[in-house]
Amino acid sequence: VQLQASGGGLVQPGGSLRLSCVASGFTLAEYAVAWFRQVPGKGREGVSGISDRDGSTYYADSVKGRFTISRDNAKNTVYLQMNSLKPEDTAVYYCAASYYSGSYNYPDPAEFNYWGQGTLVTVSS
To answer: Dihedral through CA 30, CA 32, CA 35, CA 41, nearest 10?
Structure first.
């Protein structure tokens, strides 16, 4: 059972990146999935989540209107499209999967069962 996060990198302010979270060993469509981010000295912040039941989504106020979470069940993958990136978006981004369907909304790290390894996003000119 594994989650593999990828797609991070260095981007200029205003640019875009797409993060991918690929599952192996289990069916990601059966789990709520969220993206968290973390900067040194702070806890993990839930930035976006997607339901396993009806595709409902959650976005933190800080990313609303700029980030989009989506699923491709055929590829066992969840994406996070990040547009209009700002320097304050710089962080290590983690994807996580939860047995509990409601976990996608205001995601709490303690409710997630499987974690990807993290991918670094740096927004800088």
So the answer is: -120
Rounded (to 5) percent helix, strand, coil in the chain:
15, 45, 40
DSSP 84: S
71/1 Cα distance (integer angstroms): 18
Q: Is the pLDDT of residue 1 over 90?
A: no
Measured between alpha carbons, how far is 71 from 35 in angstroms, rounded to an integer?
Answer: 12
Q: Which residues contact 107 (CB under 8 A, 6 or more apart)?
A: 34, 36, 46, 49, 58, 96, 98
Mean pLDDT throughout 75-91? 98
- What digits encode the pLDDT tens for the residues 3-55? 999 999 999 999 999 999 999 999 999 999 999 999 999 999 999 999 999 88
CA distances from 73 to 33, 41, 79, 84, 105 (A): 12, 35, 11, 27, 20
- CA nearest 19: which of 104, 101, 119, 87? 119
110 SS3 class:
helix
